[in-house]
Amino acid sequence: MDKLSEIRLRVNKPIFIHYNGVYQFLAKNSYLVSASDIEEVILRLTKHSVYAYEDNIRQGFLTGDAGERVGLCGTCVFERGNILTIKDITSLCIRVPRQVFGIADFLFKSIFAQGIVNLLVVSPPGMGKTTLLREIARQISTKSTKNILVLDEKNELFSLNSFDLGITTDVLSNVDKAYGFTKGVANLRPDVIICDELSSKTDVEGANFAVLSGVKVIASAHASTIEDLRRKPTFNMLFDNKIFDYAVILSDRLGLGTVEKVINL
Amino acid sequence: MSINLILCAILVGLTTVIGVKFSEKFKLRRDIYYELLNYCTLVNTNIGYKKDTVDKLMDKLPHTLKRCFGAELNKISRSQMVDLRSKNLKTDELNDISGFFNTLGSIDAKGQSELLNYYAEVFKSRYLSAETVYQKYAKIYVKLGALAGVLIFIILV
């Protein structure tokens, strides 16, 4: 199981997995995924309680008890320009989370050596950003007495005590990041806020608010290079206001979580 | 004389207990609908706020429902359909109650709430009718029980 990182289920197609760094079919000629298989997985993920997960479904994902993020693909239903739900789900992308102790060691020997700095972890999807953030949280908590607030929008960073994030870490689960940054700073008085996947303008504004409030922010964003990130209008404020001190670029060149570059922003 | 009185009291007591036992099915039916009605309100409130999953909601099932249907209702937590059986309720009533539990968690919050309101209306009307029947027949069974005791005593003595 340690080598399994992704499972893809598509109706009438064989199971496709990412195992030991390679995509491959599972029982390609003997089993095709059926619509009822997909339905069964969704029922189990929602614990037969669709109403409790409708916001997640609307955003295109569900999260398993062990932090597995399950992306949903089907037919989007819109009402007055807003997505209402995703129906007739035909594909699931199940990403298996893991905790890798020690993968953040290089940060604590370099840019965190003199103290925690504002850090942005950048990579395309599935390169180990979340795993790195998880380990950063654990190590900060272990090595200092800093209060860490994790904004876990998709319940995958922490996921029901499946992962060790340290004893001084508070987790705000299922939270909108913009809300988490502002209310977290005001109500929980964190020293460090860690959150996954800044993607919208309000996320970036939230991070900016936290940094300007004197809280260190460690976050991640999707891009292959820092130049690509600069080209995203959503992230203008991030560079204009110099929210982050450093950026770490990850790839899968030598396996998931390969550190390509550490950039002083 | 005193032995006769004691015998009469014992007989009346016994037959009254039998009468109460006979009336219990009316009480049970009333209690089931009363609890279903309350449970609808509880679930509806929960779905509008905490949104607990169905397995957690099943933990909050009231006493009588648990006692009557507990084993079968455990299936819901395992995402299985339930088919409730009880000799105290009619088939269509059991189908409605099974339907209520089988639809729990199958749709979004708005739809679920509308369904709960619908079932609450159904259960409310059944509760009111069950209460009327209970008030009417329960007393009759108890009185008949006591009367039967007196009659048996007269026949015997």
What descriptors fit this protein?
A: 265 residues; Beta-Lactamase; Rossmann fold; 7-stranded mixed sheet; 8 helices; B: 157 residues; mainly alpha; elongated
- How far from one another are the termini of chain A? 38 Å
Query: What is the string of helix and strand elements of chain A?
Result: EEEHHEEEHEHEEHEHEHHEE
Average of the residue pLDDT scores of chain A:
89
Level of helix content of chain B? over 70%
Summary, kept brief:
Chain A is α/β, with parallel strands linked by helices. Chain A has helices at 35-45, 54-58, 105-109, 129-143, 177-188, 201-212, 226-230, 236-240, and strands spanning 4-10, 15-19, 22-26, 61-63, 69-79, 82-95, 119-123, 148-152, 169-173, 192-195, 216-222, 246-251, 258-264. Chain A folds into 2 domains: 4-95, Beta-Lactamase, CATH 3.30.450.90; 105-264, P-loop containing nucleotide triphosphate hydrolases (Rossmann fold).
Task: Please explain how this structure is put together.
The complex is a heterodimer of chains A (265) and B (157). In chain A, helix 5 (177-188) packs parallel to helix 6. In chain A, strands 9-8-10-11-7-12-13 form a seven-stranded mixed sheet, sandwiched between helices. A six-stranded antiparallel sheet of chain A has the order 3-2-1-6-5-4. Chain A has eight helices and 13 strands. Chain A starts with a strand and ends with a strand. In chain A, 26% of the residues lie in helices and 32% in strands. In chain A, strand 5 and strand 6 (82-95) form a beta hairpin. Chain A has helices at 35-45, 54-58, 105-109, 129-143, 177-188, 201-212, 226-230, 236-240; strands at residues 4-10, 15-19, 22-26, 61-63, 69-79, 82-95, 119-123, 148-152, 169-173, 192-195, 216-222, 246-251, 258-264. The radius of gyration of chain A is 19 Å and the shape is globular. Chain A folds into two domains: 4-95, Beta-Lactamase, CATH 3.30.450; 105-264, P-loop containing nucleotide triphosphate hydrolases (Rossmann fold), CATH 3.40.50. Chain A has 265 residues and is α/β, with parallel strands linked by helices. Chain B has five helices and no strands. The mean pLDDT of chain B is 89. Helices cover 82% and strands 0% of the residues of chain B. Chain B has 157 residues and is mainly α. The longest helix of chain B has 48 residues, at 109-156. Chain B has one domain. In chain B, helix 1 (2-48) runs antiparallel to helix 5 (109-156).
